[in-house]
């Protein structure tokens, strides 16, 4: 066990703990805080593979901007505790087998390719800001712009949905 | 023992540096509150603190004792986790953000481990600093929400809206500097400003004057200081987000605010005012004795002022400190080697001091914004102007190249 492996498992445990806590918390604000923990732990994982820029941006954008908006909205609406309902039948019959199948699939894929998986750190594409921006704005400029267009459409959709009730 | 030190120097040296920086920053925080009370008092034609120690210099110690000894009641119906988390988060993130600030150009080797006048020397130190300060919002927001008090909640809401709005302008106004430097590291940004050796004229301030004005305004808003202190405006919201906090928890918010002020001043110094660089051209070698001369002059003034002081304690303490400063100044004259190490931190700290003074000056003179004015100022003026500055800088660099 080398040091980076220990740090990886620690951060992974924190991220999984945060994600589980996000689902189990009854107060919406506690859920939002758990999500922030997940974001920060993910940023730590990015740092571990040497992607400093991505880690900083992860915290600035997700931890600093997106989650503040979440918390802001929760506070503004003064959302109370969640009410628990019984599991819907569809989730029980369809969801559990689906979840099992998915995890089985991932496990099988990992088992088959164990040892031959390329390590992320060796790529070097994520480590330097310059190469990252070259990839983003030159090689993958078309998918990048398309993604931002999709996000724009999603924002417009949200506005339309919010306006419909009035 | 020596072998142990060289083997673990990578761990021990940073811990020592952290301890020194923590001590210095917390002391400076305490004395910035003293300075603030004195300066604001003199602006309003009062004396300010004068009773505890000579010139009220021991007032921060008395305040600290009071913070520790006060009762710490917890209001009913608070959200316990968030209520306790908020002050710790505020102070911890504020202190962490200072870790990437470089205070001087030199590097020194201790037990075989090479290190700089900064705790961490990262490639992306500017981004790391923004990431840490971006998380700082949660301290204020959580405090406002957890306190179960409508004034706190309004303060927390205001602060989250304000910080999101001004963070955009804050980051966009820096991009011009980044384009000039071509580097994310604060050390690289300062070194780029010193390349021409023309002193003051090669600082980023002149090509980026619009960026500086936007940055400083947004930084004041980010640190919740007058005239942007809407989250804790006492005439409307009692004390805003920290209404329900007392004792050490209140002190933590207080220390967090003042540490953020120091960080913002350091950033202004590094990005636009050449960091540790001297404002004089490199050929003016006689300016190397400026720190020593200033120390000696200040020491002489302390002795002159101290021997006429009313209390016996003051007549002993002030001249004593004056003599110590004289000795320090003399030592700088006598040992040119040490004098070389002092130059960088001297200029850096002098510039930071000027910015801290401007912060306090503004608090003494400017009235608070109204909330709608604050929002329209941030979104309709500051953000477009900083985007225009970015476009202008990029165009000029594209056509004429870097200056």
Provide an overview of this structure.
The complex is a heterodimer of chains A (166) and B (403). Chain A has 166 residues and is mainly alpha-helical. Chain A folds into 2 domains: 1-81, Four Helix Bundle (Hemerythrin (Met), subunit A), CATH 1.20.120.1200; 128-166. Helix content of chain A is 77%, strand content 0%. Chain A has 6 helices and no strands. The mean pLDDT of chain A is 81. Chain B is mainly α. Chain B has a domain at 70-283 and 335-400. In chain B, 68% of the residues lie in helices and 2% in strands. Chain B is built from 15 helices and 2 strands. Chain B has helices spanning 2-7, 9-43, 59-69, 80-97, 125-135, 137-146, 150-181, 186-193, 209-222, 234-237, 247-272, 290-306, 312-334, 336-365, 371-400; strands at 107-110, 113-116. A two-stranded antiparallel sheet of chain B has the order 1-2. In chain B, helix 2 crosses helix 11, helix 6 runs antiparallel to helix 7 (150-181) and helix 7 (150-181) packs antiparallel against helix 9. Classes of the chains: A mainly alpha (166), B mainly alpha (403). At the A-B interface, helix 2 and helix 3 of A face helix 5, helix 6 and helix 7 of B.
Helix amount of chain B, in percent?
55-70%
| Percentage of β-strand residues of chain A | under 5%
Order of helices and strands of chain B: HHHHEEHHHHHHHHHHH
Reading off the top of the CATH hierarchy, the class of the largest domain in chain A is best stated as Mainly Alpha
Low-confidence stretches of chain A: none
The side-by-side strand order for the widest beta sheet of chain B comes to: 1-2
CATH architecture of the largest domain in chain A: Up-down Bundle
- Count of DSSP H/I helices of chain A: 6
Q: In which range does the helix fraction of chain A lie? A: over 70%
The overall number of domains of chain A is 2
For the largest beta-sheet of chain B, the strand count, sense and barrel status come to: 2 strands, antiparallel
Could you give the distance between the termini of chain A? 60 Å
* Helical stretch tally of chain B: 15
Rg from Cα of chain A: 20 Å
Q: Ends of chain B: how far apart? A: 52 Å
Calculate Rg of chain B over CA atoms.
23 Å
* Oligomeric state of the chains in view: heterodimer
Mean pLDDT of chain B: 84
- The structure class of chain A reads mainly alpha
């Amino acid at each position: 066990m080398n040091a980076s492996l220990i740090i990886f498992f620690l951060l992974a445990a924190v991220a999984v703990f945060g994600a589980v806590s996000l689902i189990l918390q009854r107060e919406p604000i506690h859920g939002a805080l758990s999500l922030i923990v997940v974001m920060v732990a993910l940023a730590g994982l990015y740092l571990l593979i040497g992607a400093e820029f991505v880690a900083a941006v992860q915290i600035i954008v997700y931890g600093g901007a997106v989650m503040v908006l979440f918390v802001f909205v929760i506070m503004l609406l003064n959302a109370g505790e969640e009410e628990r309902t019984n599991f819907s039948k569809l989730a029980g019959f369809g969801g559990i087998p689906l979840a099992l199948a998915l995890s089985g699939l991932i496990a099988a894929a990992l088992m088959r390719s164990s040892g031959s998986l390329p390590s992320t750190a060796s790529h070097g594409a994520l480590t330097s800001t310059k190469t990252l921006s070259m990839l983003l704005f030159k090689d993958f400029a078309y998918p990048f712009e398309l993604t931002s267009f999709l996000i724009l459409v999603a924002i417009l959709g949200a506005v339309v949905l919010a306006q419909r009730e009035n | 023992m020596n072998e142990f030190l060289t083997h673990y120097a990578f761990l021990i040296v940073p811990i020592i540096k952290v301890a020194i920086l923590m001590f210095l920053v917390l002391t400076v925080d305490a004395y910035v509150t003293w300075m603030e009370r004195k300066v604001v008092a003199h602006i309003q034609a009062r004396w300010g603190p004068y009773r505890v120690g000579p010139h009220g210099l021991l007032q921060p110690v008395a305040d600290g004792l009071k913070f520790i000894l006060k009762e710490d009641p917890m209001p009913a119906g608070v959200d316990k986790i968030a209520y306790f988390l908020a002050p710790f988060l505020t102070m911890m993130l504020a202190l962490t953000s200072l870790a990437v600030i470089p205070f001087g150009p030199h590097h020194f080797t201790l037990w075989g481990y090479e290190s700089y006048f900064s705790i961490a020397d990262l490639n992306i130190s500017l981004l790391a600093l923004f990431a840490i300060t971006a998380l700082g919002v949660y301290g204020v927001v959580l405090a406002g929400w957890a306190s179960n008090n409508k004034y706190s909640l309004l303060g927390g809401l205001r602060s989250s809206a304000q910080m999101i709005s001004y963070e955009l302008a804050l980051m966009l106004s820096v991009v011009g500097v980044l384009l000039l430097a071509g580097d994310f590291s604060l050390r690289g940004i300062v070194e780029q400003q010193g390349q021409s050796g023309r002193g003051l004229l090669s600082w980023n301030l002149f090509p980026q004057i619009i960026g500086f004005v936007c940055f400083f305004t947004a930084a004041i808003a980010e640190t919740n200081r007058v005239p942007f202190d809407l989250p804790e405006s006492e005439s409307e919201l009692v004390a805003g987000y920290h209404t329900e906090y007392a004792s050490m928890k209140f002190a933590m918010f207080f220390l967090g605010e003042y540490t953020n002020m120091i960080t913002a001043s350091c950033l202004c110094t590094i990005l636009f005012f050449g960091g540790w660089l001297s404002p004089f051209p490199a050929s003016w070698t006689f300016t190397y004795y400026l720190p020593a001369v200033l120390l000696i002059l200040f020491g002489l003034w302390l002795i002159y002022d101290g021997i006429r002081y009313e209390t016996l304690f003051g007549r002993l303490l002030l001249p004593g400190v004056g003599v110590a400063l004289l000795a320090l100044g003399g030592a700088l004259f006598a040992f040119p080697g040490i004098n070389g190490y002092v130059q960088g931190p001297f200029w850096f700290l002098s510039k930071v001091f000027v910015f801290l003074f401007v912060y306090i000056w503004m608090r003494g003179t400017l009235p608070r914004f109204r909330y709608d004015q604050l929002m329209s100022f941030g979104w309709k003026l500051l953000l477009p102007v900083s985007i225009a500055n970015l476009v202008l800088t990029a165009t000029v660099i594209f056509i004429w190249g870097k200056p």
